[in-house]
């Protein structure tokens, strides 16, 4: 069977697939929670050891691809190893650059030494280039503040504002209000409508380009426009609405993450590939200075989340599993030096810092309490940060 035919067959969805998944999941979860707990290592240690030994012997006689296979097997075995004992408080970051943490209490700025400041009772925030300012939103107001909380300017609109993002050069800010996509100059002047009838997904500025902005439309299209002239450069074919739009650092690859599919585009809007996803929590983050990205992939049958490293190319090659654990993974952020990946582990109330070039994990617990306040009667997920950006450059 050809790769093209196999890909087409995999993309065919049975009728009412989403509703079927929603109906069966409570039954599966109840059966899973009622089972007799048996550790993964106890169930699998003997067959896994035999299989690993056979692969190691075979791969030792092979070329470098064989040695790479040994590394992948080693990584797979260690994926389920216990995480290190978490620190009870975020005392320091493993790499330089401040964090911007959007929490139920508002946006926080976290310095590399672990010190943090709550900017105020805003709903969300986004970095400017070089972390000199933060654009924050609250109800019908858009405000630019310094990381120390000092307000520079504020504008208001008749409808709720969301999804504000600073352009890579710092001279423009895009934001959503109702179904309008608007753009304002970085000093708060020149506010104007760019497009109507857009989705609530935050648009994404294309790096290394002259004020080019990609956004989703209510009819399922993805479009790229030049914000100064208003000219549309391209429109992608109709597809599933995106809930996240993300550019690679060189502006040559675009990811459009939906509920069931991840679409990969080049800078000209040509679709390079479509990846089917199981229904459940997901997210993506590009690795610095590359076309590789990390994907959160939910596993409905086991109730686990997996971090997978992939290539944003027409030929994606072999994917690599970085880490997996029971429960839901939340926001992702990559350190400015590209060596660390911050992963929110919602069910464990932890942040995990995964070293991407060497197998190493650091954990910090009590994240909801540190950023969201006392839990009281609300679920943990209601207090856990919704997004994290690691500047600079900003990590969406």
Task: Sum this structure up briefly.
With about 400 residues, the protein is α+β, with helices and mostly antiparallel strands.
Number of domains: 2
What is the oligomer described by this structure? Answer: single chain
| Major beta sheet, strand line-up | 3-2-1-28
Strand proportion, as a percent range, falls in 35-45%
CATH class (first level) name of the largest domain: Mainly Beta
- Principal-axis shape equals globular
What helical percentage do the residues reach? Answer: 10-25%
CATH architecture type of the largest domain: 7 Propeller
In terms of structural class, how would the helical and strand content be classed?
alpha+beta
Q: Which stretches of 5+ consecutive residues score pLDDT under 50?
A: 5-79
CATH fold description of the largest domain: Methylamine Dehydrogenase, Chain H
Largest sheet composition: 4 strands, antiparallel
Q: Whole-Å distance between the termini? A: 39 Å
Number of helices: 5
CATH superfamily of the largest domain: YVTN repeat-like/Quinoprotein amine dehydrogenase
